[in-house]
Amino acid sequence: MPRLRLRMMAALLSTLTGALAGCGPNDDASSHGRRPPGAQVKIAVPADAPTISDAVALAHPGDLVLVSAGVYHESVKIDTARITLRGASRDKVVIDGRLQQPNGIVVTAPGVAVQNLTVKNNTQNGVLITGSAKAAAGLPGQSGGYDTGGEPVTFLKSFLVSYVTATRNGLYGIYAFSAQNGVIEHSYTSGGADSGIYVGQCKPCHTVVRNNIAELNAIGYEGTNASGDMYVVGNRLVGNRVGLTTNSDHQEKLLPQQGAVIAGNLIAANQQPATPAQADGGWGTGIGIDGGSDNHFLRNRITDNRNAGLVITATADLPATGNQIVDNTFTGNGLDIGWTFPTATKGRGNCLRGNDLHTTVPARLATTASCPLPAHSPSPAGRWAMPTAPAGIPFTEVAAPGPQPQFPHATTTGATAVPAAPVLPKPAGIPLPSVSLLAGNARVQTS
After folding, report:
1. Are 199 and 226 in contact (CB under 8 A)?
2. Domain ranges (residues) in the chain
3. Res 82: pLDDT
4. Which end of the chain is least crowded, N or C, by CB within 10 Å?
5. Are 347 and 312 in contact (CB under 8 A)?
């Protein structure tokens, strides 16, 4: 007898037993039925449940939902804590939104792991992890924004996304919004019409984004109002329109952005024309800092970005202050570092030390803005001729990804226990990456 029917019968018998015996104040009235405390179950799709959503509805905390190869046309919502959702094959388990739903997977419960599958063709996000009820309902993003209005900030606590491929989604590939204590790792994103990986509205974030590939997106990685223990390390951000941004934005709460560590990333060739064009038209930039403060950029390899390797600017009312650019290698960029403040809002206390670079605007920044600097020191500014951004393509037409590495022993390993808080990297131990970082799994190569 299929396991799904066994579990449904067990739940029915449990309900009848409770009705006959009478319910005491400590009885478990869970809609999932009774079972021994701490017992864990593997629910197979489609063997035990016909759809992923059906399997998730059956799952208890600690269970593994293991999905067999196939194309699943559904939006999966996970609101039970500590479930592991895992594909048996990363490339062959595909959640395809067919451009008819906002999100492929929505996680609103803590301790959930999403692993080893592909999510594509959603009008908003591939995978959304959030403590915001409005975001979970698909309300942000309808016009390219993410303003949740007067909703109080509520954090989802602890999450893991690993070995996930998210491609051709209308806003973000992997989106952690109003979430803390999480890890996004070993994943691949492309065709994000806004960005491949996005972390927003968290303070402190206690979040690690590591060892991912983001290519052929409008922006590879974006951190908006993502502050405090926010680590972006060891990623390949190559062949987007913009490699990485860390910024402050009034559309989200918890202004301003501050206190991220961006270290050991390869950020290269971010002027790919066959990518979705974002609203502000950015193109050819490796790293952009817009109103972000007190961030540390350490030992990144920033190369062949046609406009500039790293740009610091300010929003109309939020300065960029105290950013430190230390021990990075710049080669082949149109301009290695450029600081520009076109509005009345300026920068303060931004500084450089130990970088391998060749050109800056203003000139001689390595000397005039050498770290450390007093926090109130005004940051000089200049202008340069920026290349014209080419027209983009629809996100639905971005090149399909190739096969990506599988989660080890996906079908034989039990559920993943997601820690309450991740172990944070030690910046001193993060090396400068090679030019071949994760190249074997990428479509876009560096020059």
Report:
1. yes
2. 3-8+41-139+148-441
3. 98
4. N
5. yes
